[in-house]
Write a structure and sequence with these properties.
Layout (H helix, E strand, L loop, with lengths): L8 E2 L3 H11 L5 E3 L4 E2 L5 E2 L1 H8 L7 H6 L8 E3 L1 H7 L10 H10 L4 E3 L6 E4 L5 H4 L1 H16 L4 H34 L1
Parallel strand pairs: 2-6, 3-7
Antiparallel strand pairs: 1-7, 2-5, 3-4
Helix pairs in contact: 4-5, 7-8
Length: 188
């Protein structure tokens, strides 16, 4: 099972690769793969963010995922049984419901990286949840980990630090985009 947002897309052969991966790893609750971030014209953007997430692939574990969300939702696939055990999405969350859902999947079996070419593309623009509400998204993700592990658990402490680093970086990028738009407007 999976879900794909209206403006994201799968790469050719992704579903066959996922099916083969689930057969190869029968104990896996879910699998995931690479997922570049693209703009409205399907041009890859934010390459450093993608590479940063991919740095955690070799360390993939429930602990690592509690520290940082390195799995891109469009490239996430899960077994029906794991979905049924993890439960529905937490609709009280505004922006981190998918993160909490993946944490629930980890409790029902390992996650497996499908190495190789990307599985999906995540389309980013300023009006997506991660574009408009990134600060709230990372706060909700931290609160989810803190509730699950406790405030002083090493994963919660790491997540807290990573959260502020990422929010700072995203804020700098948003300010840069705003200044660029103002500069373009003045030049016209």
């Amino acid at each position: 099972m999976a879900w794909l947002n209206a403006d994201d897309c799968y790469f050719p052969d992704a579903l066959r690769r996922v099916a083969a991966g689930m057969v190869e790893y029968p104990s896996a609750a879910f699998c995931f793969g690479r997922c570049p971030i693209v703009n409205e014209r399907s041009e890859e953007i934010r390459k450093r963010i993608t590479r940063f997430k991919e740095m955690f692939f070799p360390l993939s574990s429930q602990f690592t995922y509690r520290c940082i969300n390195y799995i891109s939702q469009p490239a996430l696939f899960f077994r029906r049984e794991a979905f049924q055990q993890a439960g529905l999405f937490d609709e009280t969350l505004v922006a981190a419901w998918d993160y909490k859902f993946v944490l629930g999947l980890w409790r029902h079996g390992p996650g497996v990286l499908l190495d190789g070419p990307p599985l999906a593309k995540f389309r980013w623009h300023e009006h997506t949840i991660s574009g408009r509400r990134f600060s709230e998204q990372f706060k909700e993700a931290y609160e989810t980990v803190r509730q699950e592990t406790g405030r002083y658990h090493p994963a919660a402490i790491a997540h807290y630090a990573v959260r502020w680093l990422i929010v700072w970086a995203y804020s700098v990028m948003a300010l840069h985009r705003k200044k660029s738009r103002e500069r373009d407007r003045l030049e016209k």
